[in-house]
Specification:
Layout (H helix, E strand, L loop, with lengths): L10 E9 L5 H11 L3 E13 L2 E7 L2 H14 L4 E4 L5 H13 L5 E3 L14 H11 L5 E2 L3 H8 L6 H15 L3 E4 L8 E7 L4 E7 L9 H14 L4 H17 L2 E3 L5 E3 L4
Parallel strand pairs: 1-2, 1-4, 4-5, 5-6
Antiparallel strand pairs: 2-3, 7-8, 8-9, 10-11
Helix pairs in contact: 1-7, 2-3, 3-4, 5-6, 7-8
């Protein structure tokens, strides 16, 4: 899905952490943008020491330097859409929110990254309130997974009906569309996500791909949504196309490492 040489490529911005293992975060987002034929820019929020097996260290970028990255990109490569991933602390959340409060014309996909698949905390407790008060109201869509939606709504989610309730609750509380992802639901025959934009509900279903690591799926999914928004698709269509991208990326994943026990998604 490329553009003609004489046409400028859309620019999409990811604001997220670096995954040293290359499977999630900034690295995953840029792979998605490249696969969609759009130009990805990045504002780094954190360095992490990690592989798909787990996170062993996090080093936050000073909020003032996050702001400098965003200012440079706004001036020189303004994005057609943007997404957030790991923001880590309250100062970074407030910095990002202040930027997009000034640029409401840019659709912002907020992936509320809180806890890694391995269990490592990726959002400090003090940042949770800033995320809710400052950033969520600016989103074109919020894309929590099962645990993140439960944290936002204060209730465990166990069924597709719970996902539907959470999507409506997030929209009702913050006034923005919500895509609640049910890939971690147990005992469901298919991976079901629920999109509620305040007027229409969409249930997106795909067959589970068994035996594949899910490291980086949230990043890949939200990056694809931002990419399709930058290409001019309305939200519902962008989400539907992104669902196909993530399903295909999981199915085409490749094995990594000397014993092949790690896996990487292939969004191309």
């Amino acid at each position: 899905m490329g553009s003609r040489k004489d046409e400028p490529r859309p620019v999409v911005l990811t604001i997220a952490g670096s995954d040293s293992g290359g499977g999630a975060g900034i690295q995953a987002d840029l792979k998605v943008f490249a696969a969609l034929g759009i130009h990805g820019t990045s504002a780094l929020t954190c360095l992490t020491a990690q592989t798909p097996a787990g996170v062993t260290g996090v080093h936050a970028v000073p909020a003032a330097f996050v702001a400098r990255q965003l200012e440079a990109l706004a001036a020189g490569l303004p994005p057609a859409a943007a997404k957030t991933g790991m923001l880590f602390n309250a100062a970074i959340v407030r910095t990002v929110a202040a930027t997009f409060a000034r640029h409401r014309e840019v659709p912002l996909v907020v992936d509320p990254v809180m806890i890694a698949t391995s269990g490592a905390r990726l959002l400090r407790p003090d940042a949770m309130r800033a995320l809710q008060d400052r950033l969520l109201p600016l989103a074109a869509v919020v894309t929590p997974n099962l645990d993140e939606a439960a944290a936002l709504m204060g209730r465990t989610l166990r069924s597709v009906d719970d996902l539907r309730w959470a999507a409506r609750g997030i929209h009702g509380r913050w006034g923005v569309p919500a895509l609640v992802k049910g890939g971690h639901l147990r005992d469901e025959p298919m991976a079901v996500d629920v999109l509620w934009d305040g007027r229409q509900e969409r249930l997106l279903r795909a067959a589970f791909v068994r035996g594949v690591s899910t490291h980086g799926t949230g990043c890949t999914y939200s990056a694809a949504i931002a990419g399709f928004l930058a290409l001019g698709h309305p939200l519902s269509e962008a989400v539907e196309r992104a669902k196909r991208v993530i399903t295909r990326a999981i199915a085409r994943s490749t094995r990594l490492g000397p014993d092949g026990r790690h896996q990487a998604l292939r969004p191309g």
